[in-house]
UniProtKB/TrEMBL annotation:
The protein's name: non-reducing end alpha-L-arabinofuranosidase
Lineage, opening ranks: Bacteria, Pseudomonadati, Bacteroidota, Flavobacteriia, Flavobacteriales
Any one biological process term the GO annotation gives: L-arabinose metabolic process
MF term (GO), any: alpha-L-arabinofuranosidase activity
SUPFAM superfamilies per UniProt: (Trans)glycosidases, Galactose-binding domain-like, Glycosyl hydrolase domain
Catalyzed reactions: Hydrolysis of terminal non-reducing alpha-L-arabinofuranoside residues in alpha-L-arabinosides
Length: 661
């Protein structure tokens, strides 16, 4: 036994010696005193777009699909299996929709005629089912007009695929006129694919509308609010900004289908339903049931930004529909309403309660301004048509709100004619921040770490507004959130950080996706009806965002900037608030690297923290089964004088946090 122990110890020693012998050894220098540039509070943020069922069916916790019967097929999401429509004896009853033409925002309601209250059922399927949790409480609300008091009671139940009841309650409709009713009930077991079943006691006619169901436990316990687990993932990132509502969704396939913020504020039941522009965009994943109810509207976006400590960054239509679709243009002499929308939005966000739009914000429950500082004009439009429209917006916004910072766009690609034209023209106009997008393969991200090294420091600042490494190809349904994509993005992010003088905002895209209702991959956060997890890319974004620092420092090897030599990427910052030096290191090589960092200037405490993200296989991913497969590990590290040595595993992202004395 003793001999075996000695043999094992010797073997471990040999393996460690072999590791050290094979590891690439590098010495880096960090000047802890000299600040190269300030890191903006907005350096790392999140970009929300209602794609992949990210709003209805996702972040917005509503569980009923088509609650107000306003989809193109007014009964989509609803089923009446025992109705006259399916029954030979025509005894149970039937539901049909009625349109009230003078109601412009919510014209449809459901008229239910009950003949036999023992047989008629009305069932809502939810968003690929309804996720319910044992002992959790759920709030049901609906509007009803009970003709002549014919219906004595409305029974409401959760059921599973075998029609087993998993929780129930009831509502007694007391009025012949439209009236709101509410009730609460508790789930008796956990089920990812529950449905909502409605039955009736009595016979006659009853009209129903706005049948809505929310968990009691929402983010910040807001009634009819947001999914707590998803918002928690965002909150944990400490994002510097929240960009909303998109993305191509801002533009619409046509101008009529563009996102209009004014239709998304005020009473929820008066917000006009709109088809989602991603519903049939991709043949590989059509979603004809994808609509926007705007229960998650601009007020809720501003509120979310405030909740997670992020600066709001709304993006508005510039009068151009998506150029990948119709490319429809509003004539220049008809552009004023679009410009006015931008001015009114600033008033909605920042105006006092004495202003028309500030009053609406205040009446919605937020008397204080939202402190909007950034506004985006257009998403990723290109060409002369965009530039001439941008000029009009810029002139009007600056005339009324000179302190407002305007974000413009350089088109959908990181290079080529559209990009070159856009950046050249926007520079001539002294644009403040230009949004750049890039969806490329992982190698592109590693090869382009120096992208901003030679950008004009006096020119427009950069918003890296949409980026994600594509494991297969842009918009391929086979893309994965694998580890190679994630650490390649981390390598690129060291280049973003090293150029913080130019790069002021960055965000991965898209932000989230429903596991059964996505259109685009990869995505940073994945969720189903019960759970949510952060991908490997999320873990990279989070580790950078929570360690962004306040001051950029130089990190060099033999006097030269570290930009990927020997597959080693690095950046260094100081955080004057936490009094820390933070060094980010990415080893993109297939073998370990030994790095010694010589810290010149400030005296440091003798111990620090090293946080590591790594995985042995390039194709490794996080999943619902293993949500933390790729997640950070922490350990203590000791300094020797002004030096600290760290072993970087193959394919790894490492963050060193060293306290200043």
């Amino acid at each position: 036994m003793k001999n075996n122990l000695i043999t094992n110890i010797s073997l471990c020693g040999l393996l460690f010696a072999s590791f050290l012998a094979n590891a690439q050894k590098t010495t880096l220098e960090v000047n802890t005193v000299k600040t190269i540039a300030k890191i903006q509070p907005t350096m790392y943020g999140v970009f929300f777009e209602d794609i992949n069922f990210a709003a209805d069916g996702g972040l917005y916790a509503e569980m009923v699909k088509n609650r107000s019967f306003e989809f193109e097929n007014p009964l989509m999401g609803w089923n009446q299996p025992n109705s006259d429509r399916h029954s030979f004896n025509k005894q149970s009853g039937i539901a049909t929709t009625v349109k009230v033409l003078e109601n412009k925002t919510n014209p449809n309601f459901l008229r239910v005629i009950i003949k036999d209250d023992k047989g008629y059922e009305l069932i809502n399927e939810g968003f690929r089912g309804m996720g319910i949790k044992k002992d959790a409480k759920y709030n049901i609300s609906l509007k009803a007009s009970n003709h002549d008091g014919a219906i004595k009671k409305i029974n409401i139940q959760f059921i599973d695929k075998d029609k087993k009841v998993l929780g129930e309650t009831s509502i007694v409709p007391t009025s012949n006129d439209w009236q709101n009713y509410t009730a609460q009930f508790t789930a008796t077991q956990t089920e990812a694919k529950a449905k909502l079943k409605i039955t009736f006691v009595g016979a006659g006619t009853i009209d129903l509308d706005m049948i809505s169901l929310f968990p009691q436990d929402t983010w910040n316990n807001r009634k009819n609010g947001l999914r707590k687990d998803i918002v928690q993932l965002l909150y944990d990132m400490k994002p510097g900004f929240l960009r909303f509502p998109g993305g191509c969704i801002v533009e619409g396939r046509t101008l009529a289908q563009r996102y209009q913020w004014k239709k998304t504020v005020g009473d929820v039941d008066k917000r006009e339903t709109l088809i989602n522009r991603w519903n049939t965009e991709f043949d590989h994943k059509p979603a004809p049931d994808y609509f926007q109810t705007f229960g998650l509207g601009f007020f809720e976006y501003f509120q979310l930004a405030e909740d997670i400590g992020a600066s709001p960054l709304p993006i508005l239509s510039c009068g151009m529909a998506c150029q990948f679709n119709t490319g429809e243009l509003v004539p220049m002499d008809e552009l004023n309403p679009y410009v006015q929308d931008a001015l009114d939005l600033i008033e909605f966000a920042n105006g006092s309660a004495d202003t028309p739009w500030g009053r609406i914000r205040s009446e919605m429950g937020h008397p204080k301004p939202f402190n909007l500082k950034l506004i985006g004009v257009g998403n990723e439009q290109w060409g002369p048509e965009y530039i001439e429209r941008y000029k009009v917006f810029e002139k009007a916004i600056k005339a009324k709100y000179p302190a407002m910072t305007i974000v413009s766009g350089a088109g959908p690609f990181p290079d080529g004619d559209y990009f070159e034209y856009g950046t050249k023209e926007l520079k001539k106009l002294n644009a403040e921040i230009v949004d750049e997008h890039y969806y490329k393969n992982p190698k592109w991200f590693r090869d382009n770490v120096t992208r901003y090294d030679n950008y004009d420091r006096k020119g427009p600042k950069v918003f890296a507004g949409e980026y994600a490494a594509q494991s297969v190809a842009i918009a391929s349904p086979d893309n994965k959130n694998n580890w190679e994509c994630a650490f390649s993005e981390a390598a690129f992010m060291t280049g973003l950080e090293r150029n913080a003088e130019v790069v002021h905002l960055t965000s991965y895209a898209p932000l989230m996706a429903h596991a059964e209702a996505w259109q685009w991959t990869p995505d940073m956060i994945w969720f189903n009806n019960l759970e949510a997890y952060g991908s490997a890319n999320y873990q990279v974004q989070k580790i950078f965002a929570t360690n962004k620092g306040t001051d950029l420092l130089a990190i060099t090897k033999d006097g030269k900037t570290v930009i990927g030599q020997n597959d080693l990427f690095a950046s260094a910052v100081k955080d004057v608030n936490s009094k820390e030096i933070i060094v980010k290191l990415v080893n993109a090589a297939a073998k370990a690297q030994e790095v010694t960092i010589d810290l010149k200037g400030n005296k440091l405490q003798s111990r620090g923290i090293v946080t590591t993200l790594t995985s042995a296989n390039l194709d490794d991913v996080n999943s619902f089964e293993f949500p933390n497969k790729i997640s950070p590990t922490e350990s203590e590290i000791k300094l020797k004088g002004d030096n600290v040595s760290v072993s970087l595993p193959a394919y790894s992202v490492t963050v060193l946090k060293l306290k200043l004395n």
